[in-house]
Amino acid sequence: MSNKFKILSDISKKSQASDFYFTFFKGSLLIKRENDVINIPVLDELNNLNVSYESEFFLGEMLGQSCFGVEASSQIELKDGYELISLREVGPLIDEELFLVAGRANQILNWDRTHKFCGKCGSKTKNKEEEIAKVCPNCNHVMYPVICPAIIVAVTKGDKILLAHNSGFINNMYSLIAGFVEAGEDLKSTVKREVFEEVGIKVKNIEFFNSSPWSFPNSLMIGFFAEYESGEIKVDGKEIMDANWFSVDNFPNIPKKYTLARKIIDEFVNRGEKDGRK
After folding, report:
1. Do residue 75 and residue 134 come from a single domain?
2. Is 155 exposed, middle or buried (0-12, 13-18, 19+ CB in 10 A)?
3. For residue 79, what are the domain limits?
4. pTM confidence score
5. Distance (Å, rounded) from C-alpha 86 to C-alpha 102?
6. DSSP-derived secondary structure for 2-65
7. Comparing C-alpha atoms, which of 165, 168, 155 is closest to residue 195?
8. Which residues form the Nudix hydrolase domain (predicted)?
9. What's the domain count of the chain?
């Protein structure tokens, strides 16, 4: 998050009519289009649309204006300019900061939806008043929003970068190698393991680049660069359908700019330009 949005520890904030409300219904975000500009509705607009919801979560402040996340409990009657759109669709259309806040809302609401009952004793949980957490009134077990760390890595070989086509990708898209961190595993070990498991090669000189939340539904993506060390590319034909080395002048279809994958790929391109390679 940048300086525009701040996560605050005090979640007892009372809502006002002008506060932003990141409102979801069946996984889609409520937005309003005005002259080709996409805006997040405020509470006053939600009231005019008669949107009903059970719980609201204070997300933080955007330039001093409070932001809340809610999940509509019934179908929203959309009026002129309002629409429901998936996060993946809205990502390229809005400011990156708004996308990250929307992702935070989506992640918390997904956690709220999947933690209605205690995992220890099965009793119905309650929201804690002083923090975003749930507590079991029967056994006092406390549950926080789930965050699943995952690595994503650009493996380079001279002026080429390794890109792979996952069976779940659409439009013949290619991206970087990625995978979840196992219990008890450090991040560099995850990088080495995932690359070897998915494409059969070994890497060296692993370098941290950046991190970014990825709320589909609850990941924290941790980005790296790594250099090719040895081995030949081998894919399983099930999860990874194809993988190859690509230079800048023959890139396939790659991820959109709001993703960490694209930021890493763009950094690879920028480094090449600084080094004098194309």
Report:
1. no
2. buried
3. 5-114
4. 0.91
5. 11
6. -TTEE--S---PPP-TTSEEEEEETTEEEEEEETTEEEPPBHHHHHHTT--EEEEEEEEEETTE
7. 155
8. 145-268
9. 3
Q: Are residues 252 and 270 in the same domain?
A: yes
* Residues 19 and 66 sit within 8 Å (Cβ to Cβ): yes
Query: Hey, is 152 helix, strand or coil?
Result: strand
**Spatial separation of the C-alpha atoms in residues 129 and 51, rounded to whole Å:** 23
Mean pLDDT, the chain, whole residue set = 94
Instruction: Report residue 140 as tokens.
Output: 């006092």
Q: Are 255 and 179 in contact (CB under 8 A)?
A: no
103 and 168 co-located in one domain:
no
Whether residue 124 sits in one domain with residue 99 = no
Domain finish residue from 91, 114, 137: 114
Burial degree of 205 (CB within 10 A; 0-12, 13-18, 19+): exposed
Same domain, 92 and 130: no
Query: What is the Cα–Cα distance from 118 to 155, expressed in whole angstroms?
Result: 42
Q: Could you report the per-residue pLDDT of 222-266, keeping only the tens digit for each?
A: 999 999 999 999 998 999 999 999 999 999 999 999 999 999 999
Same domain, 109 and 20: yes
Alpha carbon distance 265, 255 (integer Å) = 9
**128 and 237 together in one domain:** no
CB–CB of 222/148 below 8 Å? no
Contact 130, 11 (CB under 8 A): yes
Over 60: is that where the pLDDT of 152 sits? yes
Distance from the first to the final alpha carbon of the chain: 32
